C-alpha cells in the first residue's frame, strides 16, 4: 500500500443545461480510481456548482498509480430516471509519483464527452502521499522520467546514454468486440479511451522497469504509437532512449551504480578509430537502403555476410517478447561488453535522439531504412508467440545490418511507424547510420576529452560528414571527394540523414523544406495477393521517392538532407509515398552539379528545342534558388581539392563477392553515383512528368522559410512569437479510372496548396519560418486522401545581425559541467565539456571555410539514372516469401485507463495555477510547440510527459458544420485539454508536441463521423530570458504572471 | 479532385480583422472572397483564389464557433477551447457588438420582439445592410436588454460588466435598452433628422434625472423605468400655464433676464405662452404610457418646430430653456 491518492472536487462552471424545464442542472461528481468510487453531494439547480467536497482518499499500490488514470465523471442527478452523464475528465497522476515533481495537480479541466465534446469545466485538486518502500521487488517504475524531446532535455545533463528501449502491449479493440453491438457509441468510445490509456500506462511502466534495470533514470525521445489493427486488435508500442540524466542545477547529484562496466570498456580501444588519419575514404551513398520482406521469418537470408555474423552474436530472444528487460538481457549483455563490441553486441545500438551533445556524433553514414509487409490475422490466437515483437525484431535486425554495411556501429535518429489498411500492414523503420564517439569517454577525464575533441574536431563542422565506411570496400558506388573543409578526409557528394543538423555543422546559406510525393495505383486484392502486390511496388516507390528527393535537392543547389522522413501509406487501391526533409548546403560537401536533360530522340528538331527550353528553365531555377537561399560557396580551384576519387565501381563488386548472399542493398544504386553529370533522360512521358513536377514546386513567398527540422539552418535570430498549428485536408479523387500521373498531380497539388494556404494564413508573422513541418498522409477510404500537417511558425528578426553563435553557446553551456570521475558504462556516455562557450563558433567557422574552402565550378559530377534497367534489377532484388502474420496475444484488460500519461520530473513545488484561483483573470496562456525549445525563453523545469488519446463521435454531422466543422472543433478541443492539463501541472508550455494519430472516418449519408486523436509532448515551465535576467531567483513565477493575469478585456 | 475537408487550427486562434468585418457585415463566403479579391490581396500576397477561398471558409468557421461565446462575452474570457490574446478578445467583442447607425435608427424605441424581428427584411432592404447583419445587431440589442432588464445598479455598469464593452459602446447600449424599454417613438418622419447620438444624449440625461435610479440606487430596474412619482409630480406644472398670473410672471422673469441676449428675443416674447404651454402639456401628460412614447414627437411638434420656424439659433434655444427652468424657482409655490 505504498500510496495515498487524495482528490478534492472544488467547483464546476459553464455546465450545460441538463434540465430543459428549469434551464439548470443538478450536478454531482463521481471520482473513481481503480475499483473505488466516491461521490460528491448533488449541487442543485446551478450551472456553476460549488461542491467544495471533502478530500476523497484512495489507498493504492504504486503499480496501479502508474497504470490507472483518475477518472472524474460529472453527472446530472435525476430523481425519476437514470442520472445523465455530462462528461468525464481523466487525469494522469504519474507526474505526482516522481519525488522531484510537483506535489499537487490543481486547475480547471474541460469536462469531455465523446459525443458532445467539451461541456463546461471542473476544478479539481489532486495530491499523492507516497510511502517509501523502494527496495522490494518492483513491478512499478515510479520515478523514471519520460521525455518526448529527441535531444537531451534542456535543463539536464546526460551522464550516460544507455541506449534503446522498446516495448509493446496488445489487446483486443473494444470497438470490435461483440458487446459493441449492444452498447451505445458513448460507452464504446469510453471503453476504448480507457483501455488505451491503461495500456499506455502499462507500457510506460514496463519501459520504466527496463530503464531501471539498465540503471538509467530517464527515457528520452520517447515515442509511443497505436496501431489500430481493426479486428485483429490494438497494439500500443513505444521506443525510446534510456539515459541517466542529471539535473543541471544540482551538479553533485547521485551517481548511478554503473561503474563496473565502464572499467572494462576503458581498456579496450574502440575499433573503429575515429581518428581522421587512419581513415580511408570511399564512396558514399545518401540512402542506404531497404529490403522489402514480405516474410517475417526468412528475411535474414538476405543479409550480407557481415551482418550475419553480427546477428549470431545477438541474442535474438531477448527483444522479441518484450520481456527482455525482465530477463536483464540488455543489461547483462552490457556488463560483458567493452567499448565497441559493447555497442555492437547490444541488441540494437539505436538511438531515438536526433540532436546530440557536442562530440557525440563522429561520422554519419547515411539513411538506413527497412520496410516489411505483413498480414494481420483475423483470428485471435493468444497462445501464439508474440508475433508483433518478432516482426519488429526482424526489422530492427535489418536496420542494424544496413548500418553495419555502411561501416557504422550505431543508428541515430531512429524511428518506427506502421501503415495499416484492412489486413495488410507495412512496418517501417528508419534511422541514420552513424559512428559515435567512444573515445573521449574512456579516460573519463575532461581534459582528455577536450584535447581529443579539439584535435579531432579541428576541421570544425565537417567531421560528421566524413565517410565512416572503407573506401576500398564500399557498400555501394558513390562519388567521393576530399572534404571541402579540412581537405583531409573523404566526403560523399550528398548526404541524407534523419537527424537534425548538428549544431557545429558549417552551413552555407539557408535551408528549405524538400518533399518528394508519389502515388502508385494498385489493384484491389485480398490478403496475400494484396501483400505481394504491395511488396512488389515498394522498391519502385522507394526508388522514385529517392530520385525525386535527389532531383529537388540539386534543383535547390544543395547537397545534404536532414530530418528525412519517408512515409509510405497503404490504401485499398493505391500506395502513397511522402518524403520530407530539410535541404541544406554543407560547406564540407562538394558543390552539387546541375541537372542535365537528355532526350532519347535527338533527330526531332522541335523536340530538341523543347529539351533545350526545359534545360534552360532548370538552370534558371537552380540559379534562382541559389540566390533565394543565399547559397554562394566560395570558389576554389580543382587542384586544391585533389582529383576526384577513382571509379568506385570495382570496389563495390568486391563487396558483393564477399557477401555472396547478394546484398540487395548494395545493388540498389540509389546514389546514382557514377557519372560526372546528373543526367535526366527524358525517354517517355513519365520522365517528362517528373521534370515538370520538379518545376512546379513554388518556393515560399518572400519572408517565409520552411523546414522540417528543429530549427532552420541559417537562421538564428528568433524572436519570441510562435504559432503552432494543425491543418488537415481531405480530398476526394474525382474519377474512378485514375492514372498514376493524374494521381500524382492531385497529390502534389494537395500538398502544394496546403503549403500555400499556410503561408497565406501566417502572412502576418513575416518574416517567419515554419519549423518542424510534419506531414502525415492517410487513405481513409477508396477515393479519399487525407493530409495532416503540424508545424510551428516562428518569427525572426531580419535586421538583427545573425547571431549565429548564440544558440551554440547556450547549448554548450547547458551541456557544460562534467563529472570527471564519472565512469562510463560504455562509449555512449556523453562527455560534457566544461567549456563555457563552443570552441568553434559557427560564425568563425563560416569565415574560416570561406577563406579556405574550395568550390568546384558547377561542374559535371554525379550520376545518371537509367530507368529501363532498373526494373530488372528490382525484380531480382526482392524475395517474396509469403508468411501469414500471427495474431497478437490478448493482453489483460483492466477497467480503468488514463487518457493522458505523464511522468514527473523537475524539482521544486512551484505551481502556476493562476487560472484556477483568480476568478477574474483570463485563462493562462499555454504555448505549444513541436520543437524542443521555446525561442527567447529558458525551460526551467520539466513536469512530465503528456500523452493523451481522445475519441469524438457525432451523429449530427451536418448540424455541427459538416466534416470541417466537426474536426475543427475537435482539434481545438484537444488543444484545450492539453493546455488545461499542462496548466494544472503548473506548466506554461508543451514542447516536443506531436499529433501522432488523427484517424478520421465519416459517413455523410448517416450524418455520422468519428475521429481519434493521439497527441503527446513534454509539459514544461519556461521563463522568458529577459525576465530571467531581472528576477533570476523566482524563475517560473515571474514569467507566468503577466500572461495569466492578462487582464480584463474591457477597453 | 474536390476538397472534402479543409481546416486550420492554431494553438493561438488566428483572427483576421478584415475577414471578421466581412463576416459581421453578413457577407456569404462567396461574396467575402469576391470582396477580398477586389481589395487586391491576391496581388499583394501572390496567393491564388483557391487559397483565399479556403482561408475565408476557415475564418468563417472559426467565427461561427466563437459566436456562441460572443453571446456571453465573459465566457469568451474564461473558456479554454480557443486561446486568444486579451487584446484580440476585446476586439472580437467590441466589433461583434458594434452596430450600424442606419440600423439602430430603424429599431430605436421599438419593442425588441419577434414582431420587430420580422420587419428586419424591410429594414435590410431600406438600409442596404445585409439581413444577416441586421439579425445580429437586433439579437445583440435583445440579448443585452434581456440580461440587464431586471438588474439593480447602474445600467451602463451592468452592461459593461456582462458584455465587457467599452465605455462608449456600453453607453450606447444603455440608450438602446432605455429606449426599447420605454418604447419611445423615434421613427416618425418628423424625427428623421435626429441621429442616434441625439437620442443617446437624451437617454443619458433622462436616465440620470428621470429614473428611479436618480433617487434611489438600490431598486430593480432602476435605470430602465421612469420614476412614476416624478411623472406624477410633473402634473403640478400645469399651474404654470393654467394660472394666468403665474404665466405672466414667468414670462416677465424670463424676458427680463434674456433681454438683449437673444437674437430672436421678439419672437420669443411673442411666442412665450405657446412655447410654455407646449412644454408643460408634454410634461403633464407623461403619466400616460402612450404620451411617454410620443415624448419626442410631442417635443418636436410643440417646441422644436415653432422655434425652427422662427429660425432660433441653437444657442438661443439653450439660453431660453435654461432661463425658462431657472425662473420657475423664483415663482411662488416653486421655491
Automatic annotation (TrEMBL), chain A:
It comes from the Eukaryota. GO terms for cellular component: cell cortex; cytoplasmic vesicle membrane; plasma membrane; ruffle. SUPFAM superfamilies: C2 domain (Calcium/lipid-binding domain, CaLB). Residues 274-289 have a biased composition (Polar residues). One of its GO terms (biological process) is positive regulation of D-glucose transmembrane transport. Residues 319-328 have a biased composition (Gly residues). SMART domains: C2. InterPro entries: C2_C2CD5 (IPR037785), C2_dom (IPR000008), C2_domain_sf (IPR035892), C2CD5 (IPR038983), C2CD5_C (IPR057815), C2CD5_YbjQ-like_dom (IPR056430), C2CD5_YbjQ-rel_dom (IPR056431). Residues 265-330, 639-669 are annotated as: Disordered. One of its GO terms (molecular function) is calcium-dependent phospholipid binding. Residues 290-318 have a biased composition (Low complexity). Keywords: Calcium, Cell membrane, Cell projection, Cytoplasm, Cytoplasmic vesicle, Lipid-binding, Membrane, Metal-binding, Protein transport, Transport. Residues 1-109 form the C2 domain. It is found in: Cell membrane; Cell projection, Ruffle; Cytoplasm, Cell cortex; Cytoplasmic vesicle membrane. Required for insulin-stimulated glucose transport and glucose transporter SLC2A4/GLUT4 translocation from intracellular glucose storage vesicle (GSV) to the plasma membrane (PM) in adipocytes. Binds phospholipid membranes in a calcium-dependent manner and is necessary for the optimal membrane fusion between SLC2A4/GLUT4 GSV and the PM. PANTHER family: C2 DOMAIN-CONTAINING PROTEIN 5 (PTHR37412). This is C2 domain-containing protein 5. It comes from Equus asinus.
UniProtKB/TrEMBL annotation, chain B:
This is FGF1 intracellular binding protein. It holds the Pfam family FIBP. One of its GO terms (cellular component) is nucleus. It comes from the Eukaryota. GO terms for molecular function: fibroblast growth factor binding. One of its GO terms (biological process) is platelet aggregation. It comes from Equus asinus (Donkey).
Amino acid at each position: 500500500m505504498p500510496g495515498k491518492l487524495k482528490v478534492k472536487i472544488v467547483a464546476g462552471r459553464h455546465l450545460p443545461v441538463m434540465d430543459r424545464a428549469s434551464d439548470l442542472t443538478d450536478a454531482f461528481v463521481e471520482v473513481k480510481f481503480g475499483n473505488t468510487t466516491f461521490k460528491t453531494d448533488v449541487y442543485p439547480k446551478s450551472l456553476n456548482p460549488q461542491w467544495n467536497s471533502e478530500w476523497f482518499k484512495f489507498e493504492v499500490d504504486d503499480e496501479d498509480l502508474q497504470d490507472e488514470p483518475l477518472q472524474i465523471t460529472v453527472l446530472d442527478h435525476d430523481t425519476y430516471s437514470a442520472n445523465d452523464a455530462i462528461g468525464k475528465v481523466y487525469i494522469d497522476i504519474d507526474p505526482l509519483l516522481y519525488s522531484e515533481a510537483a506535489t499537487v495537480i490543481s486547475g480547471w479541466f474541460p469536462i469531455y464527452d465523446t459525443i458532445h465534446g467539451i461541456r463546461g469545466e471542473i476544478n479539481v485538486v489532486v495530491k499523492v502521499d507516497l510511502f517509501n518502500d523502494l527496495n522490494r521487488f518492483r513491478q512499478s517504475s515510479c520515478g523514471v522520467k519520460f521525455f518526448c524531446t529527441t535531444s537531451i532535455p534542456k535543463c539536464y545533463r546526460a551522464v550516460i546514454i544507455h541506449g534503446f528501449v522498446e516495448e509493446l502491449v496488445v489487446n483486443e479493440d473494444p470497438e470490435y468486440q461483440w458487446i459493441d453491438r449492444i452498447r451505445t457509441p458513448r460507452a464504446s468510445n469510453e471503453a476504448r479511451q480507457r483501455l488505451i490509456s491503461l495500456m499506455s500506462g502499462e507500457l510506460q511502466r514496463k519501459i520504466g522497469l527496463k530503464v531501471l534495470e539498465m540503471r538509467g533514470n530517464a527515457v528520452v525521445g520517447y515515442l509511443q504509437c497505436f496501431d489500430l489493427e481493426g479486428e485483429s486488435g490494438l497494439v500500443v508500442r513505444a521506443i525510446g532512449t534510456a539515459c541517466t540524466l542529471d539535473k543541471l542545477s544540482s551538479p553533485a547529484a547521485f551517481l548511478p551504480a554503473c561503474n563496473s562496466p565502464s572499467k572494462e570498456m576503458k581498456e579496450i580501444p574502440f575499433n573503429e578509430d575515429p581518428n581522421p588519419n587512419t581513415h580511408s575514404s570511399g564512396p558514399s551513398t545518401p540512402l542506404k537502403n531497404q529490403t522489402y520482406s514480405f516474410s517475417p521469418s526468412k528475411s535474414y537470408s538476405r543479409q550480407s555476410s557481415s551482418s550475419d555474423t553480427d546477428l549470431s552474436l545477438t541474442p535474438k530472444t531477448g527483444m522479441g517478447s518484450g520481456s527482455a528487460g525482465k530477463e536483464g538481457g540488455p543489461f547483462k549483455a552490457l556488463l560483458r561488453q567493452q567499448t565497441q563490441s559493447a555497442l555492437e553486441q547490444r541488441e540494437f545500438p539505436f538511438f531515438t535522439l536526433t540532436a546530440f551533445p557536442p562530440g557525440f556524433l563522429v561520422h554519419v553514414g547515411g539513411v538506413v531504412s527497412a520496410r516489411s509487409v505483413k498480414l494481420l490475422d483475423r483470428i485471435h490466437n493468444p497462445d501464439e508467440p508474440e508475433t508483433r515483437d518478432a516482426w519488429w525484431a526482424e526489422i530492427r535486425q535489418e536496420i542494424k545490418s544496413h548500418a553495419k554495411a555502411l561501416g557504422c556501429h550505431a543508428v541515430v535518429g531512429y524511428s518506427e511507424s506502421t501503415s495499416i489498411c484492412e489486413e495488410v500492414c507495412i512496418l517501417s523503420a528508419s534511422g541514420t547510420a552513424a559512428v559515435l564517439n567512444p573515445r573521449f569517454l574512456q579516460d573519463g577525464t575532461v581534459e582528455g576529452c577536450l584535447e581529443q575533441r579539439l584535435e579531432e574536431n579541428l576541421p570544425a563542422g565537417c567531421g560528421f560528414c566524413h565517410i565512416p565506411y572503407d573506401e576500398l570496400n564500399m557498400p555501394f558506388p558513390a562519388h567521393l571527394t576530399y572534404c571541402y573543409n579540412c581537405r583531409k578526409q573523404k566526403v560523399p557528394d550528398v548526404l541524407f540523414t534523419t537527424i537534425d543538423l548538428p549544431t557545429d555543422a558549417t552551413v552555407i546559406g539557408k535551408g528549405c523544406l524538400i518533399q518528394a510525393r508519389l502515388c502508385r495505383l494498385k489493384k484491389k486484392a485480398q490478403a496475400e495477393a494484396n501483400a505481394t502486390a504491395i511488396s512488389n511496388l515498394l522498391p519502385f516507390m522507394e526508388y522514385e521517392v529517392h530520385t525525386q528527393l535527389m532531383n529537388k535537392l540539386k534543383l535547390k543547389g544543395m547537397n545534404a538532407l536532414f530530418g528525412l522522413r519517408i512515409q509510405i501509406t497503404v490504401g485499398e487501391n493505391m500506395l502513397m509515398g511522402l518524403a520530407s526533409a530539410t535541404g541544406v548546403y554543407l560547406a564540407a560537401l562538394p558543390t552539387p552539379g546541375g541537372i542535365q536533360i537528355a532526350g532519347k530522340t535527338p533527330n526531332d528538331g522541335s523536340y530538341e528545342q523543347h529539351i533545350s527550353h526545359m534545360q534552360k528553365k532548370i538552370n534558371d531555377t537552380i540559379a534562382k534558388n541559389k540566390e533565394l537561399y543565399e547559397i554562394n560557396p566560395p570558389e576554389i580551384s580543382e587542384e586544391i581539392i585533389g582529383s576526384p576519387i577513382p571509379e568506385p565501381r570495382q570496389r563495390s563488386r568486391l563487396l558483393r563477392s564477399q557477401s555472396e548472399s547478394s546484398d540487395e542493398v548494395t545493388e540498389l544504386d540509389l546514389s546514382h553515383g557514377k557519372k560526372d553529370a546528373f543526367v535526366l533522360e527524358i525517354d517517355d512521358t513519365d520522365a517528362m512528368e517528373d521534370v515538370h513536377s520538379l518545376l512546379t514546386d513554388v518556393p515560399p513567398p518572400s519572408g517565409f522559410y520552411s523546414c522540417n527540422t528543429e530549427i532552420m539552418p541559417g537562421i538564428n535570430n528568433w524572436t519570441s512569437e510562435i504559432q503552432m498549428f494543425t491543418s488537415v485536408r481531405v480530398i476526394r479523387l474525382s474519377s474512378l479510372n485514375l492514372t498514376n500521373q493524374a494521381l500524382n498531380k492531385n497529390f502534389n497539388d494537395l500538398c502544394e496548396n496546403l503549403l500555400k494556404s499556410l503561408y497565406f494564413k501566417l502572412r502576418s508573422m513575416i518574416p517567419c519560418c515554419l519549423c518542424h513541418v510534419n506531414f502525415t498522409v492517410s487513405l481513409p477510404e477508396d477515393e479519399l486522401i487525407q493530409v495532416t500537417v503540424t508545424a510551428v511558425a516562428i518569427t525572426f528578426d531580419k535586421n538583427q545581425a545573425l547571431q549565429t553563435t548564440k544558440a551554440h553557446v547556450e547549448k554548450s553551456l547547458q551541456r557544460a559541467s562534467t563529472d570527471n570521475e564519472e565512469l562510463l558504462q560504455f562509449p555512449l556516455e556523453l562527455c560534457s565539456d566544461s567549456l563555457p562557450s563552443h570552441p568553434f563558433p559557427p560564425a568563425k567557422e563560416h569565415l574560416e571555410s570561406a577563406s579556405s574552402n574550395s568550390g568546384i565550378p558547377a561542374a559535371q559530377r554525379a550520376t545518371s539514372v537509367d530507368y529501363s534497367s532498373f526494373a530488372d534489377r528490382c525484380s531480382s532484388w526482392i524475395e517474396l516469401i509469403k508468411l501469414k502474420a500471427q495474431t497478437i496475444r490478448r493482453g489483460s484488460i483492466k477497467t480503468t485507463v488514463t487518457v493522458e500519461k505523464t511522468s514527473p520530473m523537475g524539482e521544486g513545488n512551484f505551481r502556476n495555477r493562476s487560472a484556477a484561483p483568480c476568478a477574474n483573470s483570463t485563462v493562462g496562456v499555454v504555448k505549444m510547440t513541436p520543437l524542443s525549445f521555446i525561442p527567447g525563453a529558458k525551460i526551467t523545469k520539466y513536469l512530465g510527459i503528456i500523452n493523451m488519446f481522445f475519441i469524438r463521435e457525432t451523429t449530427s454531422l451536418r448540424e455541427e458544420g459538416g466534416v470541417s466543422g466537426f474536426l475543427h472543433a475537435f482539434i481545438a478541443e484537444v488543444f484545450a485539454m492539453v493546455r488545461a492539463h499542462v496548466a494544472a501541472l503548473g506548466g506554461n508550455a508543451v514542447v516536443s508536441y506531436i499529433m501522432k494519430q488523427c484517424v478520421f472516418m465519416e459517413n455523410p449519408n448517416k450524418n455520422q463521423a468519428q475521429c481519434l486523436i493521439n497527441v503527446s509532448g513534454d509539459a514544461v515551465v519556461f521563463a522568458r530570458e529577459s525576465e530571467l535576467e531581472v528576477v533570476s531567483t523566482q524563475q517560473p513565477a515571474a514569467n507566468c504572471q503577466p500572461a495569466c493575469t492578462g487582464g480584463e478585456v474591457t477597453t | 479532385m474536390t476538397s472534402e475537408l479543409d481546416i486550420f487550427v492554431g494553438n493561438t486562434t488566428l483572427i483576421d480583422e478584415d475577414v471578421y468585418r466581412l463576416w459581421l457585415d453578413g457577407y456569404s463566403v462567396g461574396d467575402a472572397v469576391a470582396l477580398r479579391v477586389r481589395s487586391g490581396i491576391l496581388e499583394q500576397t501572390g496567393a491564388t483564389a483557391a487559397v483565399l477561398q479556403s482561408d475565408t471558409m476557415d475564418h468563417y468557421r472559426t467565427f461561427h464557433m466563437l459566436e456562441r461565446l460572443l453571446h456571453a462575452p465573459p465566457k469568451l474570457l474564461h473558456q479554454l477551447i480557443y486561446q486568444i490574446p486579451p487584446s484580440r478578445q476585446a476586439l472580437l467583442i467590441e466589433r461583434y457588438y458594434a452596430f450600424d447607425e442606419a440600423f439602430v435608427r430603424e429599431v430605436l424605441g421599438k419593442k425588441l420582439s419577434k414582431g420587430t424581428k420580422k420587419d428586419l427584411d424591410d429594414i435590410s432592404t431600406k438600409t442596404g445592410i445585409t439581413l444577416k447583419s441586421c439579425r445580429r445587431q437586433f439579437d445583440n440589442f435583445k440579448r443585452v436588454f434581456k440580461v440587464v432588464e431586471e438588474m439593480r445598479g447602474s445600467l451602463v455598469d451592468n452592461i459593461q460588466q456582462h458584455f465587457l464593452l467599452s465605455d462608449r459602446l456600453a453607453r450606447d447600449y444603455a440608450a438602446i435598452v432605455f429606449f426599447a424599454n420605454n418604447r419611445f417613438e423615434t421613427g416618425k418622419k418628423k424625427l428623421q433628422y435626429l441621429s442616434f447620438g441625439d437620442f443617446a444624449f437624451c437617454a443619458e440625461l433622462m436616465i440620470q434625472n428621470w429614473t428611479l435610479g436618480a433617487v434611489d440606487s438600490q431598486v430593480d430596474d432602476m435605470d430602465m423605468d421612469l420614476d412614476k412619482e416624478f411623472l406624477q409630480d410633473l402634473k403640478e406644472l400645469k399651474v404654470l400655464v393654467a394660472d394666468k398670473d403665474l404665466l405672466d410672471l414667468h414670462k416677465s422673469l424670463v424676458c427680463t433676464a434674456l433681454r438683449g441676449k437673444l437674437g430672436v428675443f421678439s419672437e420669443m416674447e411673442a411666442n412665450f405662452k405657446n412655447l410654455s404651454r407646449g412644454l408643460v402639456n408634454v410634461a403633464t401628460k407623461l403619466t400616460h404610457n402612450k404620451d411617454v412614447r410620443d415624448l419626442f414627437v410631442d417635443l418636436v411638434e410643440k417646441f422644436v418646430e415653432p422655434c425652427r420656424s422662427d429660425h432660433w439659433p441653437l444657442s438661443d434655444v439653450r439660453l431660453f430653456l435654461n432661463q425658462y427652468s431657472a425662473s420657475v424657482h423664483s415663482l411662488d409655490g416653486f421655491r
